[in-house]
Amino acid sequence: MPAALQTAVQLTVTATLVAWMITGFTLRPGRWMRYPVFSRATFVIIELTGTKDGHTEPVNPYAFLSPGTFLLPPPQLQAVVDHLIRTGRYDRIEGRGRCLSVKGEQPIEVRDSRVAL
Q1: What does the alpha-carbon distance between residue 5 and residue 12 come to, in Å, rounded to a whole number?
Q2: Bridge partners, residue 114, by sequence
Q3: Are 77 and 66 contacting, i.e. CB atoms less than 8 angstroms apart?
Q4: Could you tell me if 81 and 115 are in contact, meaning their C-beta atoms sit under 8 angstroms apart?
Q5: H/E element holding 40?
Q6: pTM score of the predicted model
Q7: What residues are paired with 49 via a beta bridge?
Q8: Cα 14 to chain center, whole Å?
Q9: DSSP count for the chain of H helices, then E strands
Q10: Model confidence at 69, in pLDDT bands (50, 70, 90)?
Q11: Rounded Cα–Cα distance for residues 56 and 16 (Å)
């Protein structure tokens, strides 16, 4: 394939992908490969404190997720809290935050090491 043809094909493919991405985020919801795909994610923004033998310290739940994981839905938050309690790192974990989902923004709490929406 001549170099000029290869360059033309690369530019055409790049321009097509850019146009597809731009229209993908500006068209109505509900279409295939459009932004609502991303709005179905549920995640939590929360501040946690862990207590062990009367000593309280902040807890970063993201430190206990798999590398590359950045969304923390309530079930995974409960799994992290359960792990921290089960391993004896903390006696109790408490916290407050917000749960963001397709339903909107809702308050979320961790009381007595249990996640409550």
Answers
A1: 10
A2: 111
A3: no
A4: yes
A5: none
A6: 0.65
A7: 58, 94
A8: 29
A9: 3, 5
A10: confident
A11: 54
Q: How far is CA 73 from CA 2, 50, 60, 82, 112, in A?
A: 51, 19, 14, 14, 19
d(CA 97, CA 101): 13
Residue 49 C-beta-side C-alpha neighbours within 13 Å: 8
Q: Which residue has the tokens 């359960």?
A: 82
CA distance to 18, 70, 88, 97, per residue, from 42 (Å): 27, 11, 28, 13
Contact by Cβ (8 Å): 40, 102: yes
Q: Name the residue among 110, 97, 114 with its Cα closest to residue 42.
A: 97
pLDDT tens digits for 9-61?
999 999 988 887 776 665 555 444 445 555 567 888 999 999 999 999 999 99
